[in-house]
Amino acid sequence: MGKVKLMLAFLSVALLAACGNDQNNEENAASENDAGIFVTTSFSILADVIDGVLGDSGEVDYLVPIGEEPHEYEPVPSDFRKVSDSSVFYTNGLGLEEWLERLIENTGETPVKSLSEGVTEIPLEGESGADPHAWLDPANIEIYAENVLADLSERFPDHKEIFAENAETYIQEINELDEWIKEQVEGIPEENRIIVVSENAFKYYGEAYDFETAGIWEINSGEEGTSGQINAIIDLVRDRDIPSLFVETTVDSRYIETVSEDTGVNIAGEVYTDAVGMDGSGAETYVDMMRHNTEVFVDGLMNQ
Ligand SMILES: [Zn+2]
Asked: Which of 47, 149, 160, 257 could form a disulfide with 62 if both were Cys (CB 3.0 to 4.6 A apart)?
């Protein structure tokens, strides 16, 4: 992807230079490095999608640090500044960013745009509203990328060709990921196709790749890890003879450890739901985090 992007970047500079329009001189100078576009988003996974479309034409920054979850985040003073300084603030929407109102009351004129527009919502279980974790289905990431492309192209029409090329490359990678996941999970026996984690965040993934899902709790912004919730999941794990449990990188692992200790069912590994991986984790991008999750599921659920 790097090479393609670089070639396209050169091409775009060459085209702009060839136009030789004086009033665009300042912009031409900027686009030799990048176009100086700066956008912000709520959390790291969305930043990966936006970066895929933006490429070398600009920079994207996110607010919620890797390792923290985006539901109940408390914006810090530098967040308000970042968002104020950016051309647009991209959210997930679907009620994910519970702190959005508080943020945008103090960020001036920066427009706010939800990237999940157009996805088929899956409702929360036992609570009102949609489950916000639509990004865990690659088909939805394609919609997110299309939304980024449409919005950036409207805001920065001079760069719309390069955005379109970038988006095409990114979406191609997402399609390949989708195919790869299908192949990987194919051999998991029917009775083992259930993903049990702390927060029941894998519904969209489950819908796409034929898994049931369950969590100790439904969503991080609700009640987390009450004894009633823990007892209910312990019953489920025993009744259904669940082969393995999984734990997210962005939750307190003690709850699922309690379930594991009580039932004797192993925690097969860590999975990424609400953030990409830290530097050096091997899951720093959306594609890599989804590959990692899938490998962990296959290890935990295949022939246990
Ligand atoms: Zn979550």
From this structure: 47
Domain of 113, CATH number, reads: 3.40.50.1980
Show which of 177, 197, 230 is a domain's final residue. Answer: 177
* φ, ψ (nearest 5 deg) of residue 64: -75, 120
Range 113-139 average pLDDT: 97
The DSSP code sequence of 183-218 is HHHTTS-GGG-EEEEEE---HHHHHHHT-EEEEEES
In terms of domains, do 292 and 188 share one? yes
Assess whether 170 and 195 both reside in one domain. no
Cα 245 to averaged position of ligand 1 atoms, centre (Å)? 17
Query: What is the domain count for the chain?
Result: 2
How many C-alpha atoms does 293 have within 13 Å on its Cβ side? 32
Cα of 130 from ligand 1 centre, angstroms: 12
Please give the model's pTM, rounded to 2 decimal places: 0.88
pLDDT in tens, 17-43: 444 344 444 444 444 446 789 999 999
Q: Is 227 in the same domain as 295?
A: yes
How many Å lie between the centroid of ligand 1 and the Cα of residue 269? Answer: 17
Mind listing the pLDDT tens digit for each residue in 169-192? 999 999 999 999 999 999 999 999
C-beta separation of 207 from 278 below 8 A: no
Residues 47 and 91 both lie in one domain? yes
Cα 275 to ligand 1 centroid, rounded to whole Å: 9
Residue span of the structural domain in which 171 resides: 2-177
Residue tagged 């985090």 (tokens): 289
